[in-house]
């Protein structure tokens, strides 16, 4: 029986939306890694801070965790049953990244509760590595190679992997998923 699930994928692939829907269907906690990692004013947590925030959530019997953060693999995949990889094409991810950023620019709402981290035009389009759009462009291919290698790694043989290559496949998975 699947109890602990990690949803991974390139930035803007829809990890959080998918994870929330899956957690709701399973009636288990949803854990958003970005919300644990980012502090106010776009300050990053140190590894020690991040791990300390993440560990208590992972002690639960069941959860759906969304996020990559390779530095946490040793923690989050220790007892994970299923990794769902949202592996959409580059064009789809770019479209989602740009459209999501524009929506957030217009709404001006904080990305994570308890922070004042909001999208700005400067940060979104002119800030180089801190731009989520540039980050998606830069990491899309790297993430594909990384997750293909991880799926083939004997160290992770205890994990069931599901690779969803389109939003349609993701919707079908959610409709058909049984606990």
UniProtKB/TrEMBL annotation:
The keyword Kinase applies. The keyword Signal does not apply. Transmembrane segments: none annotated. Keywords: Kinase, Transferase. One of its GO terms (molecular function) is kinase activity. InterPro entries: Cytidylate_Kinase-2, P-loop_NTPase. It comes from the Bacteria. PANTHER family: TOXIN, YALI0E33011P. This is Adenylate kinase.
């Amino acid at each position: 029986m699947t109890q602990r699930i990690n949803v991974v994928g390139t930035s803007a692939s829809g990890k959080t939306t998918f994870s929330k829907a899956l957690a709701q269907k399973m009636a288990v906690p949803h854990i958003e890694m970005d919300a644990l990692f980012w502090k106010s004013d776009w300050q990053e947590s140190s590894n020690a801070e991040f791990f300390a925030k993440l560990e208590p959530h992972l002690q639960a019997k069941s959860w759906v965790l969304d996020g990559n953060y390779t530095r946490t693999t040793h923690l989050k995949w220790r007892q994970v049953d299923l990794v769902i990889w949202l592996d959409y094409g580059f064009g789809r991810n770019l479209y989602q990244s740009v459209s999501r950023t524009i929506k957030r620019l217009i709404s001006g709402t904080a990305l994570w509760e308890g922070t004042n981290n909001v999208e700005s035009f400067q940060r979104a389009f002119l800030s180089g590595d801190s731009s989520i759009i540039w980050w998606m462009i830069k990491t899309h291919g790297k993430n594909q190679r990384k997750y293909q290698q991880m799926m083939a790694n004997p160290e992770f043989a205890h994990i069931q992997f599901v690779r969803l290559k389109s939003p349609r496949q993701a919707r079908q998975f959610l409709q058909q998923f049984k606990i």
